[in-house]
Amino acid sequence: MEPTSTRLNKYLSEAGYCSRRAADKLIDEGRVTINGVVPKMGTKVTTGDEVKVDGKTILNDTKKRTYIAFNKPVGIVCTTDTAVEKDNIIDYINYPSRIFPIGRLDKDSEGLILLTDDGDIVNKILRASNNHEKEYIVSVDKPISQTFIQRMAGGIPLEELGKTTKSCKVEKLSTFEFKIILTQGLNRQIRRMCEYLNYEVQSLKRSRIMNINLKCEVGSYRDLTEEELITLNKTLKDSKKAI
Questions:
Q1: Can you name the residues that pair with 116 across neighbouring β-strands?
Q2: Cβ atoms within 10 A of the Cβ of 207, count?
Q3: Is 141 annotated in the active site?
Q4: Which of 81, 88, 139, 222 could form a Cys-Cys staple with 202, CB 3.0–4.6 A?
Q5: For a pLDDT cut of 90, what percent of the chain falls above it?
Q6: What is the tens place of the pLDDT at every residue in 187-235?
Q7: What's the Cα-to-Cα distance from 85 to each of 42, 93, 113, 225, rounded to whole Å?
Q8: What is the mean pLDDT of residues 165-187?
Q9: CB-based contacts of 14: which residues, under 8 Å, 6+ apart?
Q10: H helix or E strand, kind and range, residue 25
Q11: φ and ψ at 36, to 5 degrees?
Q12: Does domain 5-57 correspond to CATH entry 3.40.50.720?
């Protein structure tokens, strides 16, 4: 029986060490070795090879993966760089095994962010992120008009990013609060959209990502249910054709 081989970036992601994108960066920086040799980008790992990152052996085993939903507080940064950012999400959660966030939620915002040790699903979600819904509850500094709702829903030009936002669903909840559902992930998108219309965001909470709802208190986390994972994987599988 011939030994199986896997691309190095996929090996690291399936091992739960990091996403494929992050793995490519590690490889490019020369921090990864296979049997003591620094490999080229695209090198494959064969059964029996010893893979190390910064001198530490990385095993790609079949352990049960971790998938959690975390209600991020304001002030916590979605980074795994614990040496540079003291208010990082990894130290805050203090999970007993290595996990990393899927995507980002800016420091001034709170709400749902997913974390996992499954690098493969990170790659799938980020690759398909522009096609999937993310829901936010937002409060602003002055009364919300119907014009504001219509313009937010219709698309806002963001000159600093060189893009116009996609049409989206917007619903007024109260005098100062609205709900918005995006299928786009531009940097600080909602804040920039509101600023364009001369509104200032007072609070911003992400309440849903795709089929996964928050369902936990600020600063706490929960495991995704089996039903949530089944639906999530089915959605990601179906979205491949559209990527």
A1: 67, 100
A2: 16
A3: no
A4: 139
A5: 65
A6: 999 999 999 999 999 999 999 999 999 999 999 999 999 899 889 888 8
A7: 31, 14, 18, 31
A8: 95
A9: 6, 60, 118, 119, 120
A10: helix 20-28
A11: 85, 0
A12: no
Q: Is 133-209 in the same CATH topology as 67-117+217-242?
A: yes
Q: What whole-number distance in Å separates Cα of residue 154 and Cα of residue 85?
A: 37
Q: For 133-209, CATH number? A: 3.30.70.1560
The secondary element (H helix, E strand) that includes residue 232 is helix 226-239
Task: Give the torsion sign (CA, 86, 213, 243, 11).
Answer: positive
C-alpha distances (whole Å) from 131 to each of 57, 157, 158, 228 are 36, 20, 20, 18
CATH topology for 67-117+217-242 is Alpha-Beta Plaits (3.30.70)
Task: Give me 170's structure tokens.
Answer: 């917007």
**Which entry of 24, 49, 91, 106 is annotated as an active-site residue?**
106
- Reported as half-sphere exposure (CB side, CA atoms, 13 A), residue 25 has a value of 6
Domain residue extents for the chain: 5-57, 67-117+217-242, 133-209
Q: For residue 128, is pLDDT > 70?
A: no
